[in-house]
Amino acid sequence: MSGKIKVILSKLGLDVHNRGLITVAKELRDAGMEVVYLGNALPKEIIRAAVQEDVDVVGVSSLGGAHITLGARLIEEAKREQLRDAVVFLMGGVFPPEDNATLKEIGFDEVFTPGATREEIVSSVKRLVSNKKG
Amino acid sequence: MKEKEKTTREILGEKLSRRKRTPLYNPDALKTLRQQFEQWINTIVRETDRENWMKTPRTVLGSDIPREMLYTPLSIPDLDYAEDLGNSGHEPFTRGIHANMYRGREFTMRQLTGFGSPEDTNKRMKFMLDHGATGLNVLFDLPTIQMYDSDDPLSEGQVGMSGVCVDSVDDMGLLFKDIPLDEVTISIVTHYPSNTAILFPMFLVLAEERGVPWDKLQGSVQNDITLEELIRSGAEYIPPQDCFRLQCDNIEFIRGNVPKWNFITLNGYNLREFGTSAVTEMAVAVANGIETLDELVSRGHDVDSIADRLAFFWSPANDFFEELSRVRAVRRLWYKIMKYRFNAKNPRAMWMRCHVQTSGVCLIQQEPLNNIIRAAYHALAAVMGGAQSLHVDSYDEAYSVPTEEAALLSLRTQQIIQQETGVTDVVDPLGGSFYVEALTNDIERRILDEVDEIERAGGYVAAIETGKLHREITTYFSNQQRDIEDGNIRVVGYNFHKSDIEPPSIDVFRYPEGVEERQKTRLAELRFNRDNQKVDGALTALKDACAKGKNILPYCIECARVRCTEGELFKVFKESYGLWKPPTLW
User: Is residue A89 domain-resident?
Assistant: First the structure.
């Protein structure tokens, strides 16, 4: 794969907690990726921005309990725009342990919970992007 | 230079230097002690300990303040008991705001509650009261905090999550059903000035409709610009200056109409949790307090009649002695600011009263039961520091909002401290410790230095507008994250003594289902049944008040009476004040 990995990051819905996502934004940028930080947005807006920006990765963050409801809508929107198989989808945040599996069933490629290290995040992003891009 | 142009640190420096000090320690005795100390350190103390005499604890959300290996009178040679400590309930209030502290009044056990529908939260609040909670503490859901109605497209999928949904007075009524508003003290966690101006009027109208006079109501709102403009993530923000004006409007109205209500909780807590040090947390809240009082004095209010209802909100993290010492430190500093900068006469106006919630950021997912122990130490530090009320975070909050069982365990943690340990029988039990007094002095100086820096940068609102504070805080938490990942800050079970054993699984809270649909139906009924002409009239009057720069609270009250919804009021604010783009944080 050639070129810089381009990532769009967004807070899902109205969630107020952005420390984690800001940290991830800095880490991915420091790892040489191009980061678009969208702020708070709904699934539809996130996917629209992902199309416009032509990104490789969509990362969303949810600490407010809406990870499943809004996460599922994000993947639906992605499928509608035919992004699901071309782009890597990541979710980070605070959720009950068994929800990690649910989020993957919904269609997220990887899920990060508090305690995920920058190495884990950066290397997962690189690996997942190269898998998808072939 | 005129008094006004001097910074708080300069004013305090000048006025305090004129006071006569009577050091407790005899100079001859100190001289002898110093000789003995020199001899001890050179003969008894090992060389490596001598070389590493100062050690800086690296802790989650710590301030990196270096500590001596042993504290002695030489660490506080100038200690003047009356000037620096005083007896409890007496200036400078270092030892506590009440003479008898917890002997007279137990700390209020005020567990934060909020999830699902108003009925769901009402049930949990009653459960807590039935199990010995002595106050209520209500948290709203994300749409309510962010000021959107439950049927707003932005609220989709989030109604009743992280808190309780409230759209109108009617929801407020369901939330407090069968709870006597004039008997229980109620903390209504309206984080922002904007949502305070919307939600508190709903509470007041509820009281009015139940026949409870406003002067019988006791409790608090948060009403703090720090949350609205500095540390939240949101879709829409009004400009900081307008937000600050709303903060002051709320104070002015509540002071005049709801006399026993605490109209602002200067919020260090959420800033700390966002990721900053013990010192910065307090400096920011103090700087906001100073600027707020300046504004109210310039509006013609007497500082003594305003400041006696100010309250603070702190987050104690892992460094036990830093946490308890800094509560003492900021109590003394606030006294000095009130007495010497604002020339307050009423002792109550000089009190730093505070609610404390144990740190959520310090809780981790790995081996979650360990969080019970962490929170208990946080709570103990708060009590040692002399807090007025307390919330203990639950061990499962690294996953979701607490289950009933976990919430009860948090309440029990408080009750065990209060009833079983005996620590509340003696006022300020650690006062006079060489270590605690030295650390208290050090932290007080550091807080004042950071307040000074904010004032020199143009004041609190300016420090938000320019992004100065945003940048400093982001730098702090990025560095913390790195230090934790690199193991420089130890977290047991995560980066230190990690275990391969699968910990016992815990029950995790699940939100009740169907809340959003029910709430949408309720809103549709409300919009259909209310007098929409009155609603339009009230909203137009509010808009006019915003444009004319009047105190908007009376207009918000009228809006609540005629059943305007939260989102309708926020829309008026946005149209009137415009939107602000906060600084980029990364």
Answer: yes
Q: Yes or no: say if B345 and B258 are a contact pair by the CB < 8 Å rule.
A: no
The CA distance from A95 to the nearest CA of chain B, in Å, is 5
Tell me if B154 and A26 make a contact (CB, 8 A cut-off): no
**Which residue's entry shows tokens 């009860």?**
B408
CA–CA distance, A26 with B481 (Å, rounded to integer): 11
The ipTM (two decimal places) reads 0.91
Q: What is the share, in percent, of chain A residues with pLDDT greater than 70?
A: 98
SS3 labels along B107-172: CEECCEECCECHHHHHHHHHHHHHCCCCCEEEEECHHHHCCCCCCCHHHCCCCCCCCECCCCHHHH
pLDDT in tens, B149-162: 999 999 999 999 99
CA distance B297 to chain A (A): 33
Domain B81-485 grouped into CATH 3.30.470.20: no
How far apart, in whole angstroms, are the C-alpha atoms of residue B177 and residue B173? 6
CB contact under 8 A, A96 and B478: no
Q: How far is CA B271 from the centre of its chain?
A: 9
pTM metric for this prediction = 0.95
Tokens matching residue B532? 């929409």
Give the separation between CA B38 and CA B72, rounded to whole angstroms: 12
Residue A30 in domain: yes
B158–A69 C-beta distance less than 8 A: yes
Residues of A within 8 A of B482 (CB-CB) are: 118
Domain interval for residue A107: 6-133
Per-residue pLDDT at B586? 74
Smallest CA–CA distance, residue A20 to chain B, in Å, is: 9
The CA distance from B435 to B65, in Å, is 13
The answer to whether residue A31 sits within a structural domain is yes
- CA B434 to CA B77: how far, in whole Å? 10
pLDDT of residue B124: 94
The answer to whether B586 faces chain A, any CB pair under 8 Å, is yes
Q: Where are the alpha helices (DSSP H) in B1-141?
A: 8-17, 27-43, 47-51, 101-104, 118-130
H-state helical runs in B337-433: 370-385, 404-420
Percent helix, percent strand, percent coil in chain B, to nearest 5: 55, 5, 40
The continuous run of DSSP H or E covering A86 comes out as: none
Per-domain boundaries in chain B: 81-485
Q: Count structural domains, chain A.
A: 1
- Give the best residue of A12, A14, A60, A61 to mutate against chain B (max B CB count within 10 A): A14
What CATH number has the domain bearing residue A28?
3.40.50.280
The values of phi and psi at residue B401, to 5°, are -70, 155
Residue stretches of chain B with pLDDT short of 70: 1-4
DSSP-derived letter for residue B75 is G
Query: Number of C-alpha atoms within 13 angstroms, CB side, residue A59?
Result: 31
Give pLDDT, residue B385.
98
**Is A77 among the domain residues?**
yes
Least CB–CB distance from B485: residue in A11, A17, A117: A117
The Cα A108–Cα B323 span in angstroms is: 41
